[in-house]
Write a structure and sequence with these properties.
Layout (H helix, E strand, L loop, with lengths): L1 H18 L11 H8 L3 H13 L3 E4 L3 E4 L17 H25 L4 H15 L3 H18 L3 H10 L8 H5 L7 H19 L2 H22 L8
Antiparallel strand pairs: 1-2
């Protein structure tokens, strides 16, 4: 019976993460809470968490517990607002359009020697992450952090770091998948990131801002398609 109990707990936690009931950065219920709620042994709980770690849906930090997708952002006093609904995701992307478009423009003007290597490293890591949800989310966040750092304005970087990895919207179908699957969305995001990188490299502030705005507008479109409130793009 244990494999069935383990599979049942895995499915429950996977659904909680994919639905947003446990949002990115949220801590999972404790072992004792899961044991009491589901009537399973500690071994079953640990096996389920180990499986979700392998799928890239859970990160466990010694002494702190297990978290959905990525660990929370570093402690900076006030905790970042975690978007849980479609409306909140829209609001976050609208905020990011203003913030990150200006950061990209500033990065193009600043022309720091460190910016392009950091962007290239994040791009390469994102492609290598494949369908590992936690890894690709972290690499996506690192790319946007590198843009903010390249601006030379510490307030841009502070704002992005405060939002943390939870600012990156993950497609629900990838969170629900048990197996590695081809993901055209990942390639589209990588291509958009490359466009931002190249615009920054050109030193053209307007082009860099436009590339970032297009990327985030496309992210909003993908979010709405996934939620069923917008028709698929062709």
């Amino acid at each position: 019976m244990k494999p069935n109990l383990t599979a049942g707990l895995i499915e429950h936690l996977r659904e909680q993460i994919s639905s947003g009931a446990i949002a990115p950065g949220d801590k999972l219920p404790s072992e004792n809470a899961l044991i009491a709620e589901h009537g399973v042994s500690r071994t079953v709980v640990r096996e389920a968490v180990t499986r979700l770690q392998a799928e890239g849906l859970v990160h466990t930090r010694r002494g702190a517990g297990s978290f959905a997708l990525t660990p929370p952002a570093p402690e900076t006093g006030a905790q970042p607002r975690v978007p849980r609904t479609l409306a909140e995701r829209r609001q976050l992307l609208e905020f990011r359009m203003g913030l990150e478009s200006e950061a990209a423009a500033a990065a193009a003007v600043a022309s720091s020697a460190d910016t392009l290597p950091a962007l290239d490293a994040a791009l390469a890591a994102f492609r290598q992450a494949g369908t590992n949800a936690s890894r690709s989310m972290s690499c996506d966040f690192e790319f946007h952090s590198a843009v903010a750092a390249g601006s030379g304005n510490p307030y841009f970087l502070d704002a992005v770091r405060h939002l943390g990895p939870a600012m990156i919207a993950m497609p629900r179908q990838r969170l629900e998948s048990k197996d590695s699957i081809p993901d055209a969305r990942l390639e589209q995001v990588a291509t958009e990131h490359l466009g931002i990188r190249n615009a920054i490299a050109s030193g053209n502030a307007m082009a860099a801002a436009a590339a970032m705005r297009v990327h985030l507008a496309n992210s909003l479109q993908r979010l709405e398609v996934e939620a069923g409130v917008a028709p698929p793009t062709h």
